Amino acid sequence: MANPFLTVSALALLWVQGAAKSGQADDQMTLSQYIASIHWDPAKSGTLIAIDADNVGIDEGAPKTWVGFERKLVKAGMLNVVALSWTIALEDSDLPNAYQGLSDADKLVFLLATLSPPDLAKLTGPGISAKELSGEQRLALLSMIPRPFSYLQGQVHGNNGFQSSEQPTTVPEDQVDQIRLQLRKGMNVSYGASTTVQHAQTSSTLSSLTYRGPDGTAACQSGSRFRSPMAAEFPGRTVPSKEKKSDISWSDPRLAKLVELKPVNTIGDLVAAIRQQNGIELYADIRIAGLSVNAYGSTAPAGDLLRGLALAVGGAVRQVGPAFVLTANLKGKGSAETRLKLHKAMGEIEIRARLAQWRETVAKRGVLDSLPFPADDAFQSGSISPNLFATRTGDYTKGWVSLDQLPTALQNAVNQAAGTARPQRDVTGPVAELNGKVRVSSAIGYRFELPDGRPLENNDFGVFGTRMAEISDYNSNQTDIPSDPKRLPAGSAVGIAGDDPGVVAKLCKQVKAIGASEIWLDSQTPSAIKAAIDSGLKVDLVILPWRILKGERNSEPDRNILGWSGSQLNKLSEARYDTSNLRIDSFADSVSPGAPDLASHWTKLFGIIPKAGIHRFIVLDAEPEGYSQPTNPNVGYSSGGMIGQAAIQPGLKGQVPGLFEFGYLTDLRLQFLRKHQIDPVDITEPRRVKLGPPDPFFEWPMLMGRRGSPYGNIWFPIVHPAALEGLSQDWQAVRHSFISTQVADLVQRLTPFCSSIYLEGPAPIDRHTFHFAQRVVKSGPWEAIPDWNGDSFVIFISMSPQNTENEQGELLWKPFISVRKPFCFDLRDVPTDRFNAYLHYLFNPSK
């Protein structure tokens, strides 16, 4: 191989160079040269096809056979196909467990809180393995170990660096549960106190947790250290390839005709030829359409050729309405990514609700306070007198001790590091009074030991984990809710819901009792709407234009990328999430704005609205999620039910935003496929590292050579699939294109009933003025951003037991509001028997 010594700093270059094997060196054979060397005769053996044969190389020393090229010869009817001998699989058993979403530090907190005293003694002593544990503890420890788990044997290089001349070694799967986890106490040493040009003080730091000895000391390094930052979080594993299931029948009579082959073709051209000659609407996924196909033979039956192309790229033929597409699999890359995110997020939400309790238990057990320095500590920290450790102080010059008072091992390490250190920028010179002195403090870390006892690198633990809070703390910005509803600006209201006239009348009476004068009413029955009007309150009728109404049976529910309707998604929203999730939406089945026929839906909707008595219309979710206008991700607002950027969304919606986006009806997918040659279920979120494994030929795992690759000693085909970032925007634009026309039609239909129409529009996310959970309805042009200094809008925030109560049913959260603007407390999701309690929680009306 190239360089006998590999340092960590040179590894990124190797990733790129190693991943780019293409067999173009003069002394290497290409796949096309190999095929020529075996004198393939189509007349005797039949037609043969191979993908990109001119650019597939072979390892030096590998046998010049199909195996040497990591390929195999398979049959598709009468056609011979050169296919990959391997593929990447991610089985259910490989999926992250409930602890996967936590940081390793938080998993350690769980173990420290729940291990028995004997097992805790192992963790803080010689180490403990998953083999010695069971249940959740075993799962937590195993989830800290990357799979497959690989390491490099090498030496310390320079100032605590690392180098190796060996190939990575993978721990056999049946030995992974023998890897031991150790919690270790160490020492941080600050040395070289200096001043900077800004007249500040600085110093360098060594830690006994990370120090592994002088230059040349034998050391092992975890392969995860070398893994590309672009690698999949859940990479799956390499397995022998096999044919995937397809939605098309290879024996379809329409696929019996022969297709002419050129010596070099593209997948797109061959699929187009099958489509044109056989009358089947068929497309090649844009990610593989440009790949070359070397053909050895002049013709092939269309069915055999289509099946052979699927085998050659490890793909499948998926049906989308009346059409078919040659793609990676039947599920779709975007769908697979969403499923992984959902699986991970649900586990994280479940476990993190218990994290505070674990931390409290760890503190009570005093484990970290009583943890001793290990006997093999690199600095002999256990022999240092406790009074030499620095205490926290604001004075930089306090707590320093003479280096010669400390153990020899520590002195040697500091002198070596200081002697090989590079000059620091902006440093003007040493602090004279601290010359020859160091400051020592304790630290806590953890490391793994291989089954044979060799230790790997240490990792920082801190005291109680390192995970940041998911959302900012808004408590400092919250204002007290006005005690008297009459103090709220004109246009303020309380949101109620109900289809029973008696229930609605009762809720209206309770609203009047606290002094409010206006309600938002969500109801699907004319009699309940009349009861609200008769109460004497101003009635703003809530319109959810796309919701499938009770008794409406002719409309197909809209779907998300997993094929779920709103009612299926609502089952997730019914679960109680972590307390940071301040907004949990209710979802109902809805029609798609892009549905081919909405006439019957509009007839049903407008049949509910009374001819008089409505103060104004409140149109919510006019732009349902998934149909919003494509925007620059840096723009500070978004439309529809999705509030602001996903990055600041708490709970499930922030972690799996694609789950809440609709528009994946077959008709819309088909329209997009016909125009862009890709099924929208294959489109992933742009600029994000993928969770799941790559599909060979459809993706190229950038920066993933053999060192650090989770797939061992294999080469991915070098392909340059079409960028999907633009396609994501295009898919958003297709769905949004239906909105403007439909909303204009809706407003025109509502105007004869009442001319005052407020539609939900862009949501504010100015954190200094608005709470992120607030939504906005406004009058005027729908897609225009509201004038936040005007009064043509109403801010509203939804409250329900799911986002305001603890497990004991106690109301704990009062939302931030601006008392200067009209505001609606949306209590539509509050049960009737709890409604009055919520009103009195929010308001204390004047007597």
How would you classify the helix and strand content by structural class?
alpha+beta
Q: Sum up the overall morphology in one term.
A: flat
Main sheet specs: 8 strands, mixed, barrel
Cα end-to-end separation: 87 Å
Strand content: 15-25%
Number of helical regions: 22
pLDDT under 50 segments (min length 5)?
A: 1-26, 463-480, 576-584, 632-650, 703-707, 764-772
How big is the Rg?
33 Å
> What is the helix fraction of residues, given as a range?
10-25%
Number of strand elements: 32
State the strand order across the main sheet: 25-26-27-28-29-30-31-32
The mean pLDDT is 81
Account of the protein in words:
With 847 residues, the chain is of the alpha+beta class. It contains 22 helices and 32 strands. The strands form 7 sheets. Strands 25-26-27-28-29-30-31-32 form an 8-stranded mixed β-barrel. β23 and β24 (455-460) form a beta hairpin. The longest helix is centred in the middle third of the chain and has 20 residues, at 333-352. Residues 1-26, 463-480, 576-584, 632-650, 703-707 and 764-772 have low confidence and may be disordered.
Write the layout of secondary structure elements.
Layout: E1 6-7, H1 11-19, H2 31-37, H3 42-45, E2 48-51, E3 71-76, E4 79-84, E5 86-89, H4 104-114, H5 117-123, E6 128-129, H6 135-142, E7 150-157, E8 161-164, E9 169-170, E10 180-196, E11 201-207, E12 218-222, E13 237-240, E14 258-260, E15 264-266, H7 267-278, E16 282-284, E17 292-296, E18 299-301, H8 302-313, E19 316-320, E20 323-327, H9 333-352, H10 355-365, H11 367-370, E21 401-402, H12 408-420, E22 427-430, E23 437-449, E24 455-460, E25 493-497, H13 501-513, E26 518-522, H14 526-534, E27 538-543, H15 566-573, H16 599-606, E28 616-619, H17 651-655, H18 666-676, H19 725-736, H20 739-750, E29 757-760, E30 775-778, E31 793-798, H21 801-804, E32 823-826, H22 832-842
Parallel strand pairs: 2-4, 16-20, 25-26, 25-32, 26-27, 27-28, 28-29, 31-32
Antiparallel strand pairs: 1-8, 2-17, 3-4, 5-13, 6-10, 7-8, 7-9, 7-12, 10-11, 10-22, 10-23, 14-18, 15-17, 19-20, 21-23, 23-24, 29-30, 30-31
Helix pairs in contact: 4-10, 7-8, 13-14, 13-22
